[in-house]
Design a protein that fits this description.
Layout lengths: L3 E2 L18 E5 L4 H9 L3 E2 L7 E4 L4 E5 L7 H9 L3 E4 L3 H10 L12 H12 L3 E8 L2 E11 L2 E9 L4 H15 L4 E5 L3 H4 L4 E3 L1 H11 L15 H4 L1
Parallel strand pairs: 1-2, 9-10
Antiparallel strand pairs: 2-4, 3-4, 5-10, 5-11, 6-7, 7-8, 8-9
Length: 235
Protein backbone atom coordinates (compact mmCIF):
# COMPACT_ATOMS: atom_id res chain seq x y z
CA UNK A 1 0.00 0.00 0.00
CA UNK A 2 1.08 3.57 -0.64
CA UNK A 3 -0.08 6.61 1.36
CA UNK A 4 -2.81 8.94 0.10
CA UNK A 5 -1.64 12.55 0.28
CA UNK A 6 -4.15 15.08 1.48
CA UNK A 7 -3.59 18.82 1.18
CA UNK A 8 -1.14 19.10 4.07
CA UNK A 9 0.20 15.55 4.10
CA UNK A 10 3.97 15.48 3.54
CA UNK A 11 5.63 12.97 1.22
CA UNK A 12 6.84 9.80 2.94
CA UNK A 13 10.58 8.99 3.02
CA UNK A 14 11.91 7.87 -0.36
CA UNK A 15 12.92 4.52 1.11
CA UNK A 16 9.23 3.62 1.41
CA UNK A 17 8.78 3.60 -2.37
CA UNK A 18 7.66 0.27 -3.77
CA UNK A 19 10.07 -2.08 -5.46
CA UNK A 20 7.35 -3.08 -7.94
CA UNK A 21 6.31 -0.95 -9.65
CA UNK A 22 9.72 0.56 -9.17
CA UNK A 23 9.56 3.80 -7.24
CA UNK A 24 5.83 4.28 -6.68
CA UNK A 25 5.75 6.35 -3.50
CA UNK A 26 2.35 7.98 -2.97
CA UNK A 27 -0.90 9.11 -4.59
CA UNK A 28 -3.06 12.21 -4.36
CA UNK A 29 -6.30 13.54 -5.74
CA UNK A 30 -4.80 16.51 -7.52
CA UNK A 31 -1.54 18.25 -8.36
CA UNK A 32 -0.71 21.81 -7.38
CA UNK A 33 2.30 24.05 -8.07
CA UNK A 34 3.22 23.96 -4.38
CA UNK A 35 3.09 20.16 -4.32
CA UNK A 36 5.22 19.97 -7.48
CA UNK A 37 7.93 22.17 -5.97
CA UNK A 38 7.89 20.11 -2.77
CA UNK A 39 8.23 16.94 -4.84
CA UNK A 40 11.10 18.14 -7.02
CA UNK A 41 13.07 19.39 -4.02
CA UNK A 42 12.96 15.83 -2.68
CA UNK A 43 13.65 14.06 -5.97
CA UNK A 44 10.04 12.98 -6.60
CA UNK A 45 8.03 13.40 -9.80
CA UNK A 46 4.40 12.83 -10.91
CA UNK A 47 3.51 10.33 -13.62
CA UNK A 48 0.09 8.81 -14.23
CA UNK A 49 -2.63 8.37 -16.84
CA UNK A 50 -5.75 10.50 -17.05
CA UNK A 51 -8.02 7.89 -15.44
CA UNK A 52 -5.78 7.44 -12.37
CA UNK A 53 -5.19 9.53 -9.26
CA UNK A 54 -1.94 11.51 -9.33
CA UNK A 55 0.88 9.03 -8.74
CA UNK A 56 4.23 10.18 -7.30
CA UNK A 57 7.48 8.33 -8.05
CA UNK A 58 11.07 7.99 -6.90
CA UNK A 59 12.61 5.03 -8.75
CA UNK A 60 15.85 3.31 -7.81
CA UNK A 61 18.16 3.67 -9.64
CA UNK A 62 17.52 7.11 -11.14
CA UNK A 63 18.48 8.13 -14.68
CA UNK A 64 20.47 11.36 -14.74
CA UNK A 65 22.63 13.34 -17.10
CA UNK A 66 25.73 14.97 -15.67
CA UNK A 67 26.05 18.01 -17.89
CA UNK A 68 29.82 17.56 -18.30
CA UNK A 69 29.19 14.01 -19.58
CA UNK A 70 26.84 15.11 -22.37
CA UNK A 71 27.68 13.33 -25.63
CA UNK A 72 26.65 14.43 -29.07
CA UNK A 73 26.79 12.23 -32.18
CA UNK A 74 28.71 13.41 -35.24
CA UNK A 75 25.53 13.46 -37.34
CA UNK A 76 23.73 15.67 -34.82
CA UNK A 77 26.77 17.91 -34.59
CA UNK A 78 26.45 18.52 -38.31
CA UNK A 79 22.73 19.27 -37.95
CA UNK A 80 23.42 21.89 -35.33
CA UNK A 81 26.08 23.57 -37.44
CA UNK A 82 23.62 23.73 -40.35
CA UNK A 83 21.43 26.03 -38.21
CA UNK A 84 18.34 24.47 -39.73
CA UNK A 85 16.16 25.63 -36.82
CA UNK A 86 15.82 28.83 -34.86
CA UNK A 87 16.20 28.08 -31.16
CA UNK A 88 14.45 30.10 -28.46
CA UNK A 89 13.79 29.70 -24.75
CA UNK A 90 10.61 30.41 -22.79
CA UNK A 91 8.89 31.90 -25.84
CA UNK A 92 6.08 29.32 -26.18
CA UNK A 93 5.84 27.31 -22.96
CA UNK A 94 2.19 26.31 -23.24
CA UNK A 95 2.64 25.38 -26.90
CA UNK A 96 5.59 23.13 -26.01
CA UNK A 97 3.86 21.32 -23.14
CA UNK A 98 0.74 20.96 -25.29
CA UNK A 99 2.80 19.43 -28.10
CA UNK A 100 4.43 17.04 -25.62
CA UNK A 101 0.98 16.00 -24.42
CA UNK A 102 -0.21 15.17 -27.94
CA UNK A 103 2.99 13.47 -29.13
CA UNK A 104 2.64 9.78 -29.94
CA UNK A 105 5.10 7.58 -28.07
CA UNK A 106 5.87 3.86 -28.50
CA UNK A 107 4.04 1.70 -25.97
CA UNK A 108 1.80 4.52 -24.73
CA UNK A 109 -1.86 4.89 -25.58
CA UNK A 110 -2.43 8.16 -23.74
CA UNK A 111 -0.63 10.93 -21.91
CA UNK A 112 -0.07 11.89 -18.30
CA UNK A 113 0.11 15.56 -19.32
CA UNK A 114 -3.52 16.35 -18.49
CA UNK A 115 -5.10 19.83 -18.54
CA UNK A 116 -4.53 20.02 -14.76
CA UNK A 117 -0.84 19.21 -15.24
CA UNK A 118 -0.53 21.82 -18.00
CA UNK A 119 -2.09 24.47 -15.75
CA UNK A 120 0.19 23.57 -12.81
CA UNK A 121 3.38 23.72 -14.88
CA UNK A 122 2.23 26.92 -16.61
CA UNK A 123 1.89 28.43 -13.14
CA UNK A 124 5.47 27.35 -12.34
CA UNK A 125 6.57 28.87 -15.64
CA UNK A 126 5.00 32.20 -14.74
CA UNK A 127 6.81 32.05 -11.40
CA UNK A 128 10.18 31.41 -13.07
CA UNK A 129 10.58 27.71 -12.23
CA UNK A 130 9.44 25.89 -15.38
CA UNK A 131 11.21 26.54 -18.68
CA UNK A 132 10.99 25.50 -22.29
CA UNK A 133 13.35 25.38 -25.24
CA UNK A 134 11.78 25.68 -28.70
CA UNK A 135 12.94 24.78 -32.21
CA UNK A 136 11.29 26.75 -35.04
CA UNK A 137 11.30 26.55 -38.81
CA UNK A 138 9.71 29.37 -40.81
CA UNK A 139 7.74 30.48 -37.75
CA UNK A 140 6.37 27.00 -37.02
CA UNK A 141 7.13 25.16 -33.78
CA UNK A 142 8.68 21.84 -34.82
CA UNK A 143 10.37 20.61 -31.65
CA UNK A 144 11.15 21.38 -28.06
CA UNK A 145 11.29 20.34 -24.44
CA UNK A 146 10.37 21.59 -20.99
CA UNK A 147 11.38 21.05 -17.39
CA UNK A 148 11.79 22.63 -13.98
CA UNK A 149 14.83 24.51 -12.67
CA UNK A 150 15.36 24.93 -8.92
CA UNK A 151 18.66 26.34 -7.70
CA UNK A 152 21.39 24.60 -9.72
CA UNK A 153 19.28 21.54 -10.58
CA UNK A 154 17.24 20.91 -13.74
CA UNK A 155 14.44 18.35 -13.80
CA UNK A 156 13.68 17.30 -17.38
CA UNK A 157 10.06 16.45 -18.08
CA UNK A 158 9.23 15.84 -21.73
CA UNK A 159 10.22 16.60 -25.31
CA UNK A 160 8.68 16.36 -28.77
CA UNK A 161 9.74 16.58 -32.40
CA UNK A 162 7.71 17.16 -35.54
CA UNK A 163 10.89 17.12 -37.62
CA UNK A 164 13.71 14.62 -37.21
CA UNK A 165 16.36 15.74 -34.71
CA UNK A 166 14.55 18.97 -33.76
CA UNK A 167 14.16 17.94 -30.12
CA UNK A 168 17.75 16.66 -30.00
CA UNK A 169 19.03 20.04 -31.14
CA UNK A 170 16.83 21.67 -28.48
CA UNK A 171 18.42 19.37 -25.90
CA UNK A 172 21.93 20.35 -26.99
CA UNK A 173 21.00 24.00 -26.60
CA UNK A 174 19.53 23.26 -23.17
CA UNK A 175 22.86 21.76 -22.11
CA UNK A 176 24.65 24.90 -23.29
CA UNK A 177 22.24 27.02 -21.25
CA UNK A 178 22.72 24.86 -18.16
CA UNK A 179 26.49 25.10 -18.46
CA UNK A 180 26.27 28.88 -18.63
CA UNK A 181 24.20 28.81 -15.42
CA UNK A 182 26.56 26.34 -13.70
CA UNK A 183 23.85 23.68 -13.45
CA UNK A 184 25.69 20.32 -13.32
CA UNK A 185 22.84 17.79 -13.30
CA UNK A 186 19.68 16.96 -15.25
CA UNK A 187 17.11 14.55 -13.84
CA UNK A 188 15.98 12.25 -16.67
CA UNK A 189 13.61 10.19 -14.46
CA UNK A 190 13.32 6.99 -16.52
CA UNK A 191 15.98 4.81 -18.08
CA UNK A 192 15.85 4.82 -21.89
CA UNK A 193 18.33 4.02 -24.61
CA UNK A 194 17.59 7.38 -26.20
CA UNK A 195 18.78 9.27 -23.12
CA UNK A 196 21.74 6.93 -22.65
CA UNK A 197 22.94 7.83 -26.15
CA UNK A 198 23.52 11.38 -24.87
CA UNK A 199 25.52 10.18 -21.87
CA UNK A 200 22.76 9.81 -19.30
CA UNK A 201 23.22 6.98 -16.80
CA UNK A 202 21.51 5.48 -13.75
CA UNK A 203 22.72 6.26 -10.24
CA UNK A 204 21.45 4.97 -6.88
CA UNK A 205 18.40 6.79 -5.54
CA UNK A 206 20.19 7.73 -2.31
CA UNK A 207 23.01 9.37 -4.26
CA UNK A 208 20.49 11.20 -6.43
CA UNK A 209 18.56 12.48 -3.40
CA UNK A 210 21.77 13.73 -1.79
CA UNK A 211 22.78 15.57 -4.97
CA UNK A 212 19.34 17.14 -5.33
CA UNK A 213 19.30 18.25 -1.68
CA UNK A 214 22.49 20.21 -2.22
CA UNK A 215 21.81 21.60 -5.68
CA UNK A 216 18.26 22.92 -5.14
CA UNK A 217 19.59 25.10 -2.32
CA UNK A 218 22.59 26.32 -4.32
CA UNK A 219 22.20 29.66 -6.06
CA UNK A 220 22.65 29.67 -9.81
CA UNK A 221 24.22 32.69 -11.54
CA UNK A 222 21.69 35.35 -12.42
CA UNK A 223 21.99 34.71 -16.16
CA UNK A 224 18.83 35.20 -18.19
CA UNK A 225 17.06 32.04 -19.36
CA UNK A 226 18.06 32.55 -22.98
CA UNK A 227 19.95 30.47 -25.55
CA UNK A 228 23.68 30.45 -24.78
CA UNK A 229 26.67 29.84 -27.02
CA UNK A 230 26.66 26.22 -28.07
CA UNK A 231 30.31 26.21 -29.12
CA UNK A 232 31.51 24.39 -25.98
CA UNK A 233 28.90 21.67 -26.50
CA UNK A 234 30.21 21.14 -30.04
CA UNK A 235 33.86 21.21 -28.97
Amino acid sequence: MIPWLRQRTPFPPLERALIEPNGLLAASEDVTPARLLEAYRRGIFPWYSGDQPVLWWSPDPRMVLFVDEFRIARSLRKRIKQERWTITADSAFRAVIGACASARRPGQTGTWITPAIIDAYADLHERGYAHSVEAWRSGELVGGLYGVAIGRMFFGESMFARESDASKVALAHLVAMLRSREVPLVDCQQQTGHLASFGARPIPRRMFADLVAGLVHSTAPGAAWTPASISDVLA
